[in-house]
Design brief:
The protein has 688 residues and is α+β, with helices and mostly antiparallel strands. It contains nine helices and 43 strands. It starts with 5 loop residues before the first helix and ends in a 33-residue tail after the last helix.
Length: 688
């Protein structure tokens, strides 16, 4: 057999190698597993792919629309567009019509986004256009669901009832001790019970909130704010009761009866979004977009949660619940409106209007829902007004800043010759008479007595302030009861129970004066240096003063005082920022029952004193036991060290040339005795 040439062998080798490589590639393809998902490979493309719901979930069906002829169609379309455009951009709308051109009473509206369609269904469903027409709104995508309802009804599966904690447990505290939270640096939160003689820590949690924490008005909930929304906590262990989604929320506000919560969050364009939630269900009821700065409560509630209002440009908009629609379907036009406030007792609004050229300023009392002006008062030469309701709603005080001269320069307004009036409205008297108190000096603070008819004013120059107390009676002008001269103060803090007041300076010195306004005696004059916050507990028994790390760097912490000004506890810590007492709901006792209880307090005084003594004795016993335990531990430790020291005596003598240095007199040659005399005390007696 002839042998192959080397070149032929080389060619065969190349061919064989090629076939082997192809076979290997084929085997690899057969065993290949693609573990890269389409979302990883084409994520940006797949996000834009059409969905089955596109074009359907953005469409709503509105039933209950008026059936109009062609002549009135354009007007109807303008009204419908105005109502539904507030929920988002409308792409298309379709009004089915009969052969003669009349609308059929239902329409189709297509939004740009599915979220806009959902909000329209949520907010505008059951919207009353007029007395005869109420909108019924559904998503177009729900049509199939409603069309395929089975003929045979099957009862829904019974879901287990989620047990909720007792949210009012704190009201049944046997000794009526109040709670308060302490906010520390790094969002470290503590909840304390103000027990006697030392407060008891109930809960301590790190990072409980990401920004703000606050009690609800009746003390039922503790609200914390997070990037994703608001969380409400309650019950003995402060468990999670409700989560409300509202991204980047920065502030929340409760309605007075705790039925609703308003969350405020900034938007990218500088505006802010206000969302109202139903606390019982967690449902979002309505939202607003506002260009007002986040400096206060834009939405303000009536005392019974039935109404809330807000100011617009020359308008006052009042909304009613639970529909959350405008009262009577329209806002109230008020040219030049500056501020308003609800009465704490009645559904009455007080607002003031700035003066305009020759038109004087006005303070108006408006009854809701009738919109009837029950009182109006014209005011001249007005620079500013502040509205102060008495807690019981029996009186209204409007502080009026007035001027003698006004000067306008390049758009700026400058006032001179300022003086001040306090307009007192007697709300319970016929025709609501108004009395006036005039003060020529600068005003620094004003405060009504919460329970009672007195009010206090700080006035005068900063270095020489005076505090004046007035009393208001039915059918009489305010009477000056007492004027305290030469007081270095800046703020007034009335006890929630009335009668007692703390006159404080919380800008620098932290001076505190506890005054009993029954006879205007000063019970105590003291200070909490550089105090930044002062707050009474809800019962009026204790006062807390604090120095916040948010406002100052040194000596931070909080102190608790009795209503008479006696210091009870000091908590000095470098991390303290803020504290707040847990509110209590109004008492269920009638005025007569409260009066009878106060009369019979002497019967229970001995019981309370005995309880306090037992509590103090228990506390003293605990302190003594603790000291005895520490003393015993110290004696045991000392005896062990003495035993070791005695065992080491031979070693000590070996390294000290066999000289016993354990006794001071052992080496009298190297000891020098020096006598030192010094004057301890000098007494001088003068004999006549």
């Amino acid at each position: 057999m002839a042998k192959k040439k080397d070149s032929e062998k080389h060619e065969d080798g190349q061919k064989g190698g090629k076939h082997n490589k192809d076979d290997a590639d084929a085997n690899e393809l057969e065993n290949f597993v693609d573990d890269i998902t389409d979302e990883e490979l084409l994520g940006d493309v797949l996000q834009k792919r059409p969905k089955v719901s596109d074009g359907v979930d953005t469409v709503i069906i509105v039933d209950g629309v008026p059936q109009v002829n062609p002549e009135r169609f354009d007007k109807l379309k303008v009204v419908i567009t105005k109502i539904f455009a507030q929920f988002g951009k409308i792409l298309n709308d379709y009004y089915p019509k009969t052969e003669n051109g009349h609308t059929k009473g239902y329409i189709f509206i297509e939004y740009e986004k599915h979220e806009s369609a959902l909000e329209a269904v949520t907010q505008a469903n059951n919207y009353k256009l007029d007395k005869q027409h109420t909108f019924l709104i559904n998503l177009f995508s729900d049509y199939k669901k409603y069309n395929e309802i089975p003929e045979k009804w099957e009862p829904p599966t019974i879901q287990p009832f989620p047990e909720r904690p007792n949210l009012q447990y704190f009201l049944s505290e046997p000794d009526a001790f109040d709670q308060y939270y302490v906010y520390n640096i790094n969002n470290h939160i503590e909840v304390w019970l103000n027990s006697n003689p030392q407060p008891t820590k109930l809960v301590e949690r790190e990072k409980w909130t990401e920004s703000l924490i606050m009690w609800s008005p009746l003390g039922t909930y503790l609200a914390t704010l997070h990037k994703q929304g608001v969380v409400l906590w309650g019950g003995p262990n402060f468990t999670n009761v409700l989560k409300l989604s509202h991204r980047n929320v920065q502030f929340v506000d409760f309605s007075p009866c705790e039925q609703y919560l308003v969350a405020y969050a900034p938007l990218d364009n500088g505006e802010q979004k206000l969302t109202i939630f139903d606390i019982r269900t967690g449902a979002e009821k309505r939202s607003f977009i506002s260009d007002a700065p986040m400096a206060g409560n834009i939405l303000r509630w009536s005392k019974d949660d039935k109404y809330f209002a807000r100011i617009g440009h020359n308008t006052l908009s009042v909304y009613e619940t639970p529909s959350f629609g405008l009262l009577d379907k329209k806002s109230i036009t008020v040219n030049g409106i500056r501020d308003f406030s609800w009465s704490p007792r009645d559904n009455v609004l007080a607002y003031w209007v700035a003066e305009d050229k020759d038109v004087p300023a006005r303070v108006v009392l408006l009854e809701i829902p009738s919109r009837k002006e029950i009182r109006a008062n014209n005011l001249f030469n007005v620079a500013d007004c502040k509205i102060h309701w008495q807690k019981a709603g029996d009186y209204l005080c409007v502080k009026v800043d007035r001027y003698a001269k006004i000067k306008r320069e390049k758009g700026d307004v400058k006032y001179s010759g300022m003086y001040f009036n306090f307009e007192i409205f007697h709300m319970r008297e016929k025709n609501i008479p108004v009395d006036s108190v005039e003060i020529k000096e600068p005003i620094h603070a004003f405060a009504w007595e919460p329970i009672g008819s007195k009010f206090a004013i700080i006035h005068g120059e900063p270095s020489n302030n005076s505090v004046s107390f007035y009393n208001v009676k039915s059918g009489q002008a305010p009477v000056l009861l007492k004027k305290l001269d030469k007081h270095f103060c800046s703020h007034l803090f009335w006890s929630p129970a009335g009668q007692y007041i703390v006159i404080a300076e919380i800008r620098d010195s932290g001076a505190l004066e506890f005054v009993d306004t029954a006879d205007f005696t000063t019970m105590c004059s003291t200070e909490h240096y550089k105090a930044t916050d002062i707050e009474w507990d809800p019962t009026g028994r204790f006062v807390a003063t604090g120095v916040s790390a948010w406002k100052t760097k040194g000596d931070t912490g909080y102190w608790i005082w009795s209503f008479q000004g006696r210091i009870l506890n000091r908590f000095n810590t470098n991390t303290y920022c803020h504290m707040q007492w847990r509110p209590r709901p109004p008492t269920l006792l009638s005025a007569k029952q409260q009066k009878d209880t106060k009369k019979s307090l002497k019967k229970y005084t001995s019981q309370f004193e005995t309880k306090d003594k037992m509590r103090m004795t228990k506390a003293s016993k605990e302190v003594i036991d603790k000291r005895r335990k520490l003393m015993k531990e110290f004696e045991e430790y000392r005896s062990k060290r003495l035993e070791d020291w005695n065992k080491q005596k031979a070693e000590r003598m070996a390294i000290r040339s066999h000289i016993d240095t354990d006794e001071l007199d052992s080496d009298d040659k190297n000891v020098q005795v020096e006598k030192v005399e010094f004057l301890v005390k000098e007494e001088v007696t003068v004999v006549d």
